[in-house]
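Journal club side-thread
Mid-discussion, someone asked how the predicted structure for our own chain would compare to the paper's figures. Pasting it here so we can look after the session.
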Amino acid sequence: MNVKVLSSQDLSFADLYFEEFGESQKSWAASPKSLIYCGDLIQSQKISSVLDAGSGLSSYYFHSNFENVSTIDDDPYWASRTQAFVEKNLEKKIAITDLASVRDKKFDLVFYDYGNMETRIYNFLPALNTCRRFFYVDDVHVPFYREYVHARCKEYNIQFLPGTRDQYGRYGALIRI
């Protein structure tokens, strides 16, 4: 996977996104710390394919830094806004489809931030089945969601990542397949 040099300390990539979508998106968009964590993982583990499940800041980050990225979303309106933003700022056209369109594919890394909590729970196992190596679960700071993820992943190595905690208290977990 062709990779740009990333800095674990540089979170400025998000500034342009928040200028476009507003400061209120900071508590909803994927945490820049989580994205940097995944970028470092992509580099260190030589990841060759990424599924960005849930469009937005993550789409901008992954498509600006890596090749072989597929993006899915359950919300057509949000997907179209993300496509327009990526095209305008990266001069790159991306397709954003839904989970059904990738169910038969396998990805080295799945970044899972798909829809609201009900949607995430409903689609968790189908999304997990698209993963070949690493499955990053965003927002496991939510107690019932963390318990759900933990209960569904007992046969896998799951690591909760408080080091990805952001100013809103959000953090993720990494499941090794």
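Post-session note: The chain has one domain: 31-176.
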